[in-house]
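2024-03-11 09:14:02 INFO worker-7 job=invfold-0412 stage=load source=structure_tokens
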């Protein structure tokens, strides 16, 4: 009887260990969805089907109240596109991971390289970017991005200053 109880306990223990959900992976349908979002950005096509209607985007934000809806995010990208003759994420060592938090939230993190050529002067700028996406029921509900935009901002300021200077010089 004692052996049967020990065997039963061992089976239960072994089964419990086998049925644990995967909490970290580098291969998942959510990662494929993020790769599709990156490709859409690079192609300047914006597929809303991968986002929940209530999705919120936070870019370089330090506030939970300062976010964009998906439509505002698309408009943000389109408005910025006028500054670049080319822009997009490169294939230079992208990294993707999916994690399930202790609270059961599913997030995909990615580390990418973004490269752009300024339309006004042809200068090329390369920036490392971290993006993270929260998923619910297979849809993106939250998108967070962090990067140092100072090089782009300074270049845009220099372009604007040069334009103002050339406009003020009489012909």
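2024-03-11 09:14:09 INFO worker-7 stage=emit residues=171
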């Amino acid at each position: 009887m004692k052996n049967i109880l020990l065997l039963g306990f061992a089976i239960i223990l072994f089964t419990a260990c086998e049925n644990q959900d995967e909490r970290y992976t580098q291969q998942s349908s959510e990662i494929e969805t993020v790769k599709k979002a990156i490709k859409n950005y690079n192609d300047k096509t914006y597929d809303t089907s991968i986002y929940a209607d209530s999705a919120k985007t936070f870019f370089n934000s330090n506030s939970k109240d300062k976010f964009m809806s998906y439509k505002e995010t698309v408009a943000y990208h389109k408005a910025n596109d006028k500054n670049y003759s080319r822009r997009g994420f490169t294939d230079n060592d992208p990294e993707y991971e999916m994690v399930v938090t202790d609270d059961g939230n599913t997030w995909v993190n990615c580390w990418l390289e973004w490269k752009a050529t300024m339309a006004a002067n042809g200068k090329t700028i390369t920036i490392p970017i971290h993006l993270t996406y929260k998923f619910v029921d297979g849809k993106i509900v939250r998108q967070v991005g962090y990067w140092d935009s100072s090089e782009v901002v300074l270049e845009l300021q220099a372009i604007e200053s040069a334009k103002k200077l050339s406009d003020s010089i009489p012909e």
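2024-03-11 09:14:09 INFO worker-7 stage=report msg="Strands lie at 24-25, 51-59, 84-89, 95-100, 106-118, 124-136, 139-147."
2024-03-11 09:14:10 INFO worker-7 job finished
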